[in-house]
Amino acid sequence: MTPLGLYSPGHSPLHRAPAGAKLLVLLALVTAVVVVGSPAWLGGACGLVAAGYVIARIPGGRVLPVARSLLLLAVLVGALQVWLLGWQSALVTVLRLAASLAAAGLFTLTTRIDAVIATVERALGPLRRVGVRADRLGLLVGLTVQAVTTLSAIAGSVREAARARGAERSPTAFAVPFVVRTLRHADELGEALAARGIGDEDHDPARPDTEPDTEPDTGARRGGNGRRVP
Amino acid sequence: MITFEGVGHRYEERVVLREVDLALPERRIGFVGANGSGKSTLARMVNGLVLPTEGRVLVDGLDPAEKGPAVRRRVGFVFTNPDSQIVMPTAGEDVAFSLRRSGFSRSERARRAAAVLAAHGLEGYADHPAHQLSGGQKQLLALCGMLALDPDVLVCDEPTTLLDLRNTRRFAEIVAGLRQQVLLVTHDLDLLADFDRVVVLDEGRVVADDEPEPALRHYRKLCET
Q: Core-most of A141, A147, A229, B77, by most CB within 10 Å?
C-alpha cells in the first residue's frame, strides 16, 4: 500500500532495540554511504541492510513493495546516470540510494511511530530553553510519516479516477486533483487536530504547558526509548 | 448548555448563517438541511473551529471566541472523513495521542486507550494499523479518540455519510448509549427518529425546530419544492 511500508509488528532484536539507537545507526549508515565512494564497500552496506531484513524477519509481503519501488527508482536513476555520467558513477549512486532507502525502510518497519516521536521529543528536550517546542516537533515527525501513507492513497485514487476517464497519460488530470485533494486533506487534518486540542496548550494557563518530565514509568520502557544510547 | 444568540456568519460576501437563536438543553439534537444550508458551519461554532461574525455562542456560559481551549475540552467533534481524523499509525496510539496532556504515564495511556477501544466495539484492535481498518471501524476509532477525553458534549458532522448501512447503524447504536449530549448533523434521517429535537436549516436560517417527526416532515416538504 505504501512505498516504504509502515510498522510491521514483531519481536526480533531489531524490533526491541531502542528507537534512539536505531535512529543513530541509521544516521551513521547513511552518512557513511554518502562519504564512501567504493562500489565494493557500498555493496557491503547493501548486504548489511539486507541481513537486517532477515534478522527482523520482515514477512515477504512487506518486503516486496519496498523492493519493487527501490528497483524502479534504481532503474530510472541508474539509466539517467549511465547516460549522463557513465556506468561507474551510476553504480555508486544506485548502491547509495538502495542502501539508504532500504535502511530507512527497515527502520520504519521495525519501529513504532510512537517510539520515534518520544525519542525526538526527548532528544530535543534541552532545546526547550531556547524556545524550541520539542513536543510540537515530535508531532511533526509523526504526521510526516503518516503523510506518506495518506499521499500515496490519494495518488492511487486520483490515478484510478484518471484511468476511468481514459486520461492516464495527461499530467494535469493527475496533478490538479492530486493537489486539490491534498490541500483539502490538510484542511481537514488541521480541523481535526484543533478539535483534539492541538495548539490550545499555548494559551491555556489551566493546564501545564508541557508533559511532566518525571513520568512514573517503568524502567524497561524508559530504556526502550533510547536512554541507553551511548 | 449550548446557546446561540443572534449568530450570523459570512465568508466575504457570501452569507452562510443568519439570525440563529437557539437554546439547546436536550440530550439528543439533530440538525438537517440541504447541502450548503449552514449545518457544518453551525456545528463548528460549538467548539470554536469557526467563530461567528455576528452574535455569540455560549457553551456552559463560555464563549468559544474567548475560551477556545476550555470549550474544546468540553466539546468533542467527530468529522465526516475518518481518514483525516486519525493521526497515528495504530488504533491504540491514536487514542493514546488524545491523552498526551493527561499526565498519565505512557503505559497508563496505552492501557486507557485499549479500554476505550474495547468499550466501543474495537476490542483487540489496539495494535492494528489504523489505515487498514474498515471505514466503519475507522469512524469508531475517530469517536474513541474523542471519547478518551471524556467531553460533556459530542458534535458529529455527518459521521455516517461514508459508511454502509450496517456500520451506520452500529455507529448510531454506540452514540445512542453515550452519556454525552450529542449534536448530530446528518443526512441519514432514520438516525433521528429517537432524538429529542431536530433543527432544520435552509439557506443559513432555522426554518423548523421541533420534535423529529414534524421537523423531518417539514424538511421533506422543503426538498420537494
A: B77
Q: ipTM of this complex > 0.95? A: no
Burial A141-177 (b: 16+ CB within 10 A, else e): ebbebbeebbbebbeeebeeebeeeeeeeeeebbeeb
Q: What is the per-residue pLDDT across B112-161, written as a single tens digit (0 to 9) for each?
A: 999 999 999 899 898 888 878 898 999 999 999 999 999 999 999 999 99
Count the residues in chain A.
230
Q: Which of A38, A21, A33 is nearest to A88 (CA)?
A: A38
Q: Kindly list the structural domains of chain B, giving each domain's residue range(s) and its CATH number in brackets, ordered by start.
A: 2-224 (3.40.50.300)
Where do the H-state alpha helices sit in A11-55? 13-16, 19-35, 39-55
Three-state DSSP class for residue A26: helix
CB contact under 8 A, B49 and A191: yes
Put simply, the answer to whether B89 touches A153 (Cβ < 8 Å) is no
**A60 vs A203, residue with greater confidence:** A60
Phi, psi of A83 (to 5 degrees): -65, -45
- What are the chain A neighbours of B77 within 8 Å (beta carbons)? 192, 195
Among A39, A32, A45, which Cα is nearest to A90's? A39
Are A116 and A19 within 8 A, CB to CB?
Answer: yes
* CA dihedral (A70, A75, A76, A79) positive or negative: positive
Taking the CA atoms of A7, A9, A12 and A15 in sequence, report the sign of the dihedral they define.
Answer: positive
Report the gap between the CA of A121 and the closest CA in chain B (Å).
13
Contact A185, A150 (CB under 8 A): yes
Residue B56 has pLDDT above 60, yes or no: yes
Task: Give the closest residue to A211 by CA, choosing from A116, A146, A133, A141.
Answer: A133
Classify A217 as helix, strand or coil. coil
State how far the Cα of A106 lies from the Cα of A102, in Å rounded to an integer. 6
Model's pTM, two decimal places? 0.73
Answer yes or no: are the C-beta atoms of B31 and B201 closer than 8 Å: yes
| Three-state secondary structure call for residue B151 | coil
Q: Which of chain B's residues have a Cβ under 8 Å away from the Cβ of A146?
A: 87-89
Ordered alpha helix ranges (H), A111-165: 113-124, 134-164
